[in-house]
Amino acid sequence: MNIMRILMLSLALFAGQMTMASAADGTYHFGFKKSVNGQPPSIDQEGFKGLLKQRGAVFTGDQSQKELYLTFDNGYEQGYTGRILDVLKEKQVPAIFFVTGHYIRTEPELLKRMAAEGHLIGNHSWSHPDMSQIPAERIQKELNQVKEEVAAVTGQKEMHYLRAPRGIFNDRSLSVSQELNYTNVFWSVAYRDWEPKQQKGWEYAYKNVMAQLHPGAVILLHSVSSDNTEALGKIIDAARAQGYQFKSLDEMKLRTP
Which of 102, 119, 128, 222 is catalytic? Predict the structure, then answer.
């Protein structure tokens, strides 16, 4: 089974889990109550809010400010990231790309372009495992290998942001990554966008993202989506028309929870 198939199966599992949290064994699948009409989203009922706060994780930025943080998960390439970068360059919008080992090995030129154009590159683990089920030593290896190989390709020496594969985490995975100076970045705007054969047109992506916008939003998009690629410029323009500003995670002054 090739890496693309593995990642697709992983994301399919994630689809069924992203609105659920299970604390039976201390492991959680990140989920949240979506924003409606610009109101703040919520993780109050998910059972892990205190844990995220304790470990310094990010769900949203300052919910009193009309700021947005654009994040992309890049497990493999479908031919759209170059076009996404074109839009970000044209619109002068910063983003962060969370990458896996497969992406680093197969797309070095895109990584170089991300860094050269001022975007952050974040850690999505080397092999996309469930980090709640692997020992601390392997978590460290997974994260270090991504950091070291991104540095070798791009010259980016620092890497401070992590997105857990499939949004699965527990106290140990958060603690180990925190000790390695990572901030775990979750999200407050998302929709089912990661299946290349289930795309529904740019309007579908546009409506799903715009319906959830709220002050301080961390937007999760998957770069394998043709819908996201086509809708991105329109989303940026419409958000700005509502008074929102797009910022880099490095500019996030207030983190919640």
Answer: 222
